[in-house]
Amino acid sequence: MSSAIRIILVEPSHPGNIGAVARAMKTMGLSNLYLVNPVLFPHTNASARAAGADDILARAQVCTSLDQALTGCRFTVGTSARARRLSVPVAEPRECAARVQAESAYGEVAVLFGRERSGLTNAETDRCHLLVSIPTVADFASLNLGAAVQVLAYELALARRDDESTPPQQGVMQTAPAEDMRRFYEHLERVLVDLDFLDPERPKQLMRRLRRLFNRARPDDVELNILRGILTATERARANR
Ligand code: SAH
Known about the structure:
This protein is α/β, with parallel strands linked by helices. It has two domains: 2-163, SPOUT methyltransferase, trefoil knot domain (Alpha/beta knot), CATH 3.40.1280.10; 178-239, Helicase, Ruva Protein, domain 3 (Orthogonal Bundle). The chain is built from ten helices and seven strands. It has a seven-stranded parallel β-sheet with strand order 3-2-1-6-4-7-5. Helix 1 (15-27) packs parallel to helix 7 (145-163). The longest helix is centred in the C-terminal third of the chain and has 20 residues, at 221-240. Residues 79-82, 113-114, 116, 118-120, 133-134, 136, 141-143, 145, 148 line the site of S-adenosyl-L-homocysteine.
């Protein structure tokens, strides 16, 4: 069982899919399911499709925001049927699973799945360090939500099995958790607006680009404290002028 990996469904509309996801997870040894604003949950269709994975549904955490669901996670993967403009790096499931397995030795990892109709928004994929796309035929790329979770969960199970012999390295990569990164971005945005560097009327892609930059760099807790300190000093210097 992997307790360091959480599967997050963002606004799933069909309770049957939530059940199918629970079943897919249970077969592959995953147990932490998070639901962000599910349209209908709990629901008899979810239990019916779970087919014995009711324990996963019973333990599922229902959240009112993605921020809440990501609290405590240090690495976030987003799933998408299509690659995007200004995107985060995109991997195939096998490569992604190896990465998730490696990251899970250092902290909790989230794998995000999008809405049945519209997938994940740009703001949501901006929260991710890595995107994963299941290769399909070119003109029919969208899998059912439960099927997409099954493919990823299978690859994660294989990666875990392959990795069991190698003990994790200690003392590396204490990357800051999602909630601290969120507070940092809020602070950074406030200071950039205050400095007239960022025009809230015409923000362009500035914050998205900065998120991408820091997601590549993956600051640890100490580095993030330094960055927050610089922002606070900037605010103070401006107030004293
Ligand atoms: N029209 C939506 C498809 C949503 S399918 C879109 O283009 O994004 C619902 C969810 O299933 C997606 O948000 C994603 O999490 C997952 N999914 C479906 N097909 C996938 C694929 N080929 N690769 C990775 N994830 C996929």
